Amino acid sequence: MSVPRPLNPAWTPHGRAAVGALSLVVVLFALSAGPTHDGGPPPPVRPTATYTTALHPSATGDGRERVAVMRGGELSMGITGPKASVSGPGTRAMLKLALLLLPLLTAIGLGAQLRRERDQRRKSEQRVMAFVATACHELRTPLTAISGYVQLARLGGLADLEKFDLVMARMTDETRRMSALLDELMLLARLDLGQPLRSEPVNLAQLCREAVADAQACSPHHPIRLTILPGTHAVTGDRDRLYQAVANLLANVRHHTPGGTRTALGLGTEDGFRVIEVSDDGPGIPVELRHSAFERFVHGGQAATHAPVASVGGGNGLGLSVVAAIVTAHGGTVSLEPDRRGAWFRIRLPA
């Protein structure tokens, strides 16, 4: 069931004024629609049941007409009152008033539209500024770590070979993390601009098998159960991006649940859609944060929290937003379903 959208505050007072002015015009036209008279008694009612009335083509020239009435076999002549006219002075005044109000109504509607567009543009600019600020912070974190390791090497703190290998491994991890962040930022920018993705046949069953195998290799302590229902699980889309969407959901479990958390990945068909489900028995997502799960730079439940991550390529707060952007670009939907334990994500793609 659809919920009606609230009126825009910028439009409400002006909309009421426009409706009131339009109602006034309607009332004035209704009052002026009837016959106009110059005073005196109303015109006589012409007989319809017992009399025969005939109209002569001639007229008196003052807006009245001659009528011949047959009564009891005798013909009598008469002149009716003035005819109804739609071109009287009252009607002309109403038309002038309508012509004056029409530009006013147009100006009110145009002004409200411009205000709505201005507010939307301002909100969009604020979102872009917040996005850029958070992205800069995320990029600064690995750069700061790499800079610190470089300074340590210059001061001779890496003379020990074991310490040197450890620092090199950490620098490699931070570099990969920064590269992954840049790749996801570029992907989101492309999808926001509406740039098309590749369109090719994709076997979702094979894709899910590969995603599960790679996730198990990254974290053997997070067991994954794969269930593929019978049927053909083919869609048309960008295989690499669809793989990324499934891999990000599995990585979300890996990054935000303790070791030993069990994950289930299911693939099937429902109402003409291919459905991919990823669920786990971990701690889940807090209720107050579920509505923002697919927003950008949301870390483990809250935005703008820059906690260190335990593995490379994750925890930057873009994983679920990338999933949502990829699925939407394929004409599908992704949702976070209510569950008593853990998190339960559903992807629906057109078959």
TrEMBL record:
Location relative to the cell: Cell membrane
GO CC terms of this entry: plasma membrane
EC number: 2.7.13.3
Keywords: Kinase, Membrane, Phosphoprotein, Transferase, Transmembrane, Transmembrane helix, Two-component regulatory system
Location of the Histidine kinase domain: 134-351
Catalysed reactions, as listed in the record: ATP + protein L-histidine = ADP + protein N-phospho-L-histidine
Main location: membrane
SMART domains linked: HATPase_c, HisKA
Molecular functions per Gene Ontology: phosphorelay sensor kinase activity
Pfam families named in the record: HATPase_c, HisKA
PANTHER family (alphabetical): SENSOR HISTIDINE KINASE TRCS, SENSOR HISTIDINE KINASE YKOH
Protein name stated in the entry: histidine kinase
Source species of the chain: Streptomyces griseoruber
